[in-house]
Amino acid sequence: MCLGIPGEVVDIIDEDAGLATVEVSGVRRAVSIRLVQPEGIGVGDWVLVHVGFALSKIDEDEATATLDQIKRLGQPYVDEMAAFQETAVV
Questions:
Q1: Number of domains in the chain
Q2: Among candidates 8, 23, 17, which has minimal Cα distance to 37?
Q3: Strand pairing of 53-58 and 46-50?
Q4: CATH code, 64
Q5: Contacts for 41-45: CB closer than 8 Å, 24+ residues apart
Q6: pTM of the full predicted structure?
Q7: Which residues pair with 9 in a beta bridge?
Q8: Burial 38-53 (b: 16+ CB within 10 A, else e)
Q9: Which residues pair with 29 in a beta bridge?
């Protein structure tokens, strides 16, 4: 199962390349922010991440509520976090 999972932008790695570091439940990885750059994206913003791409910008309350619900799924959440940690955007 692939989930869209909320993460917080903690660093803009390369604005021209559209890459940022996003943290989800203590796990950090690089993701593409190209799809949300037109909205304006910066450190501290929350995004919905799916397969290495920030699909949309969301507010912190929505991010927290969504992450809480995803955690309740149990194994799918564990699997998604493992995939999030092991993959990279190239």
A1: 1
A2: 17
A3: antiparallel
A4: 2.30.30.140
A5: 41/9, 41/12, 42/9, 42/12, 43/9, 43/10, 43/11, 43/12, 44/8, 44/9, 45/8, 45/9
A6: 0.83
A7: 22
A8: eeebeeebbbbbeebb
A9: 22
C-beta of residue 45 within 8 angstroms of C-beta of residue 60: no
Q: What is the pLDDT of residues 8-45, one digit of tens each?
A: 999 999 999 999 999 988 889 999 999 999 989 999 99
Nearest to 66 by CA among 37, 44, 46: 46
In which domain, by residue range, is 12 found?
A: 5-86
- Which residue carries 């929505």 as its tokens? 62
Question: How is residue 58 written in tokens?
Answer: 């969301």
Q: How far apart are CA 18 and CA 34, in angstroms?
A: 5
